[in-house]
Amino acid sequence: MFVRDVERISNIEKLIVTHKFNILFWELENLPKKILNFTGSRNLTEEEVRKEILEESISRDDLEDFFQKKVSIRIKETLSMKFLFPPLSFSIENPPKVLVISPRDKIFQQRAILLNNQIPEEEIILIENSIDSMNYSSIILDTGGFAAYPSIIKPSKNFDFLFSTIAHEWLHHYLIFSPLGRSYFKGGDMVSINETLADLFASEILGRPDERKPTHNKFRIMMKETRHQVDYLLEKGLLDEAEFYMNKRKEFINSEGYSIRKINQAYFAFHGNYGDSPSSTHNYDKDLKHLLSTYDSFEEFLNEIKNIDEPKQLEKLINLRSN
């Protein structure tokens, strides 16, 4: 790392020091509450929960208790567990935001830093502009969930989103005890493999493995077109042209009824981690689905794939199972 790079990182830390999300403090404050929470709750049916979520008439305690029971049962059934380890633990509340930093000349998640969710919009813009002036691409985004322990799940009126996000974050907890989960901290492809597997697991736990997100809706098509053109321009070294194009595409996509604050290299770097995202250019979603199809159960599939810790090992496993 060059001296100039160290100076830029130091300047970024100064910009965000008062806004950084303290994971350890949050866990120390919230984990005891989960362990010692003996509050009684209503025995609600799924139909009642779906109705009360939409009406916003269900308490957070009742909602968390319902999902605690139902998601735990589904995970234990899917993975043939007598006892769930690690125990399912989550809190439905606004998760932290994430500051994503990418180089300008390629789409790559160089850094991802959690920030408090109360950060004002004007401060978000100031931080992004300051970082961009250092010849980076940056964006501050909301997250749907975060695998602290307990995990933090974004409130939603969408029952399926809550169910699947709780399962998604639990798998990150589970995988941390295996080579695959620990390889997350290597960054790059290992982040994408972990996140794509967690999405696949969440879909399995929800009970709709064949009802994934639609692959041909307008937004997905527009974003895939945008990503491919941006990659082409960046490969040619046309940075200014790529950034001008992304801004114009943002305006066009929003004119089609969507609402995106910003599209840049950092935007694609973050969303590209998820295999089923239109911002993704890798084939891990397709590869993992194919690999899963070669096993008799998700349990068998997970028990094998959790032992890999680099992309070449995944490729080797796919080739082995395909022969």
Kindly summarize this structure in a few lines:
It is built from 14 helices and six strands. The chain has 323 residues and is mostly helical. Helix 6 packs across helix 8, helix 9 (218-235) packs antiparallel against helix 10 and helix 12 packs parallel to helix 14 (311-322).
Characterise this structure.
By secondary structure, this protein is mainly α. 56% of the residues lie in helices and 8% in strands. It has 14 helices and six strands. A hairpin with a 7-residue loop joins strand 2 (97-103) and strand 3. Helix 8 (189-206) packs across helix 12 (284-293), helix 9 (218-235) runs antiparallel to helix 10 and helix 12 packs parallel to helix 14 (311-322). It is globular, with a radius of gyration of 21 Å. The chain starts with a helix and ends with a helix. Mean pLDDT is 90; it is low at 211-215.
How much of the sequence is in beta strands?
5-15%
- Helix amount: 55-70%
Average residue-wise pLDDT = 90
Radius of gyration: 21 Å
**Major sheet characteristics:** 3 strands, mixed
Which oligomeric state applies?
A: single chain
Q: Main sheet: which strands, in order across? A: 1-6-5
How far the N terminus sits from the C terminus, by CA atoms, comes to 43 Å
Shape: globular
